[in-house]
Amino acid sequence: MLAYTAWAWAGLRPSYHWAGVAASVVLLAVVLRHAFRAVVRDPVFWLGLCFTGFLLVQWANAGREQYFDVGYHRWMYTAPRWPGWPSAYARAEAWQMVTWFFPAWVVAASFRCRLMSRREVRGLLFFLVCQAGALALFGMVQLASGTEAIYWVQPLKGHFFASFTYGNHAAPYFVLAGALTAGLLYNEVLDARLAEANGGRARLRRPVRVGVLLAVLLLCLAGALLGFSRTGIILTGGLVICLAGYGLVRGWMILPPAGRLNLAALTVAAVGSLYFAVASLGERGFRQEFTLRESFAGEAPKTLWERIELELGYRPKFARAAVDIWLEEPWFGAGGWGYKYRVADYVPEKFWDNLSRRGWANTHVDGLQFLAEFGVAGMGLLLAALAAMGARLFGPGVRRGALWTMGVKGLLLVGVFSLIDLPFRCPAILLTWVAVLGALPSACTVSAATRRSESTGWK
Question: What pTM was computed for the model?
Answer without folding.
Answer: 0.91
